[in-house]
Amino acid sequence: MPDLNGSLSVSSPVRGTALPLETVPDPVFSQGMVGPGVAVHPEPGQEGGQEGTQEVTAPIDGTLVKLHPHAFVVMAPDQRRGVLVHLGIDTVKLKGEGFTLLLGEGAEVTAGTPVVRWSPGSVAARGLPAVVPVVALDAAPGDLGSVAEGGVDNGETLFTWA
Predict the structure, then answer these.
(1) Do residues 8 and 153 make contact, with C-beta atoms less than 8 angstroms apart?
(2) What is the phi/psi pair of residue 118, to 5°?
(3) What is the pTM of this model?
(4) pLDDT at residue 47 in the model
(5) Is 28 within a domain?
């Protein structure tokens, strides 16, 4: 949600370990081709970690402008900033298997609203990375501040977007 100076707080859609986007094993994300952000690696052994299913939540208030089983985009109310949440790498190959959509495209959401249910472990068992890139679409790297590193809970701030 935007604060008084117009910066947008982007929260973690899953629980795990926040690492630089450069750690994602896909150049589209690691080289910042779609924008800067943070990679969240779901943790094995944690509730909602890789062994079980977990609900992936909206990182900001806004509108679900794109919704696929493996990825979604929430557009902020200012209609200038969109945040991409991508569940795993190359998971489009799964054709929706292992993902359950909880909302429809066009839905209005608040940060923390469940959007998709998935199992990071089932993605990993198919040989695909279960990392979750959270990207500020078309932003400049210098637009992000207060970037989280280390353990994050679902709903905890990942970064702010000026």
Answers:
(1) no
(2) -150, 170
(3) 0.93
(4) 47
(5) yes
